[in-house]
Design brief:
single chain, 509 residues, mainly alpha, D-Maltodextrin-Binding Protein, domain 2, 2 domains, 5-stranded mixed beta sheet, 22 helices
Length: 509
């Protein structure tokens, strides 16, 4: 396949000229995307479980310590960890500080995506793709979380933009060197960059072989060697801590591609996963319509621009293969870096659909089906913000804690409570609960050392509900049996109770 083969004859948006109403519409969508992400950040939602695990690793280690295996099965790129550590050193350990880098990456992604789409999609497709991205609740959510998913997206977009010129022109030595250096650096900034580069390298090599020029083959091979060498070093220093962790792999067993598929349930995995992608991370309530439009887009690109189709599908295929090797889950937030490629497919499909629909009303109705639910979700998030988590409980304890008081922190509240202790510079005398899902009497044994104390604070959380189950009720029932409840505060996602555990419960006054 050469650069001249199957190149789209339609003019890209940037060459169509004229400041049209549609152009202003695209700009408005970019501004909406930026505004929604800033609002999400300003809501300053409480740190939640996964964020707390990573935040504690960042705040409790030095730069050298962040190159070692992280606690609680956490993993993040080295440059992300170091940037977070630096930001915390300069601005403090608060939520705003730790979420600043994801916010900046997310805002950059809005601009980078527009640059990518205006070079790849007709106007109708661009507007639809931008609208989906602007309103996608999962994408907005990760703009303000202490996780690397937003930076994964920004780095992937930069890589997609770098290879885009190769659709229309052959690889030059200077550009090959630029690709080699930037690609090699990217794997230290985003783990999925390795998957993106694997797919792109395959396309570059196949195209070079198709051109039958030794110079092109040599340049493509040199790029692949540079990328592979950097990825191998990154794997040895950072990634292997997670991929070699059997416990972490068990968390995602049903999210690994069956390789090879050997049963009807294995075959169903592909169908289920395909449609799930359009719900999470794409944020479409009408996931089936999004999935259909993507297929229309693949069909269109097959007929108009097979080089672009190869660049679009190759990172998806490499991610599936990594999933089949059980080193990368193919699900939700882990696929945020593929969102731009899926949007190109949907945008092409939307343009195909709109051009071939017999009635304008059908197009309007389809647009409403696609966008009303995401718009409602984005508006709700902008107005209500995120949950308060354990933060109000911590604040209540901090205000009323007295000398001699003790604390019992339920297992699923431990990481977040520890984060707020670290942020506030305190370390309460406490018992940190351990998960005893298979042995509920384990909670009784944890509480036993606290008996005989007149003031014991008990911190519980009701999220994540799939983990908490009814354990919180079991713990309270036991405490009511062995002591007297003298106070309580119940919040939306957490609660705190004050017990006198010096003797049996006495409700007679």
């Amino acid at each position: 396949m050469t650069a001249a083969q199957s190149v789209d004859s339609r003019e890209p948006l940037e060459e169509s000229g004229g400041a049209t109403a549609h152009s202003y519409g695209a700009l408005a969508l970019v501004l909406i995307a930026l505004a929604l992400r800033i609002v999400e950040y300003l809501h300053n939602k409480a740190i939640w479980l996964d964020e707390a695990h990573l935040a504690l690793n960042i705040l409790q280690r030095g730069y050298a310590g962040l190159t070692e295996r992280l606690d609680a099965g956490q993993g993040a790129p080295l440059m992300f960890l170091w940037a977070e550590r630096f930001t915390a050193n300069v601005l403090g350990p608060g939520e705003y500080s730790l979420r600043l880098l994801p916010l900046i990456a997310s805002l950059a992604s809005c601009v980078l995506l527009y640059a990518l789409l205006r070079r790849t999609l007709p106007m109708r497709g661009l507007l639809m793709a931008l609208a989906i991205f602007a309103l996608a609740v999962p994408v907005i959510r990760y703009a303000s979380e202490v996780k690397a998913y937003a930076t994964d997206l920004a780095v992937a977009l930069a890589l997609y933009l770098m290879v885009l010129p190769l659709e229309r022109r052959p690889l030059s030595p200077g550009y090959a060197a630029l690709l080699a250096v930037c690609g090699a650096a990217s794997v230290w900034c985003a783990f999925p960059a390795t998957l993106v580069l694997a797919g792109l390298a395959a396309v570059l090599i196949v195209r070079a072989v198709g051109e039958k020029g030794m110079r092109s083959i040599a340049m493509a091979a040199a790029i692949a060697v540079a990328w592979t060498s950097s990825a191998a070093a990154n794997y040895w220093l950072m990634l292997r801590h997670n991929t070699e962790n059997a416990e972490v792999r068990t968390w995602w067993l049903d999210r690994f591609m069956p390789l090879p598929p050997t049963s009807p349930s294995d075959a169903y995995w592909f169908v289920r996963t395909y449609f799930e992608v359009f719900a999470e991370p794409m944020g479409l309530g009408a996931a089936g319509l999004g999935a259909l439009l993507f297929l229309f887009g693949v069909y269109t690109l097959w007929n108009t621009n097979r080089i672009r189709l190869a660049f679009l599908l190759a990172p998806i295929v490499s991610t599936l293969l990594a999933s089949g090797m059980q080193v990368y889950p193919f699900m939700g937030r882990f696929l945020l870096f593929l969102v731009p490629l899926i949007l190109i497919g949907i945008g092409e499909g939307w343009d195909f659909f709109a051009a071939n629909a017999r009635h304008r009303a059908v197009v309007v109705a389809a647009a409403a089906v696609l966008l009303v639910q995401p718009a409602a979700g984005a508006l709700k998030g902008a107005m209500q913000g995120g949950g308060d988590g354990v933060r109000p409980v911590f604040d209540h304890v901090a205000q009323h804690f007295a000398e001699g008081d003790k604390l019992y922190v339920y297992c699923w509240a431990v990481p977040t409570f520890h984060y707020y202790e670290l942020k506030s510079g305190v370390d309460y005398p406490k018992v940190d609960g351990q998960s005893s899902r298979a042995d509920w009497p384990g909670y009784v044994r944890e509480i036993a050392p606290l008996r005989g104390n007149s003031r014991v604070w008990v911190v519980l959380t009701n999220t994540p509900r799939q983990l908490v189950g009814q354990e919180d009720k079991f713990i309270l029932t036991h405490l009511d049996t062995i002591g007297r409840r003298s106070g309580e505060r119940v919040f939306a996602e957490s609660s705190v109770y004050l017990y006198d555990l010096r003797g049996p419960s006495d409700h007679g006054g």
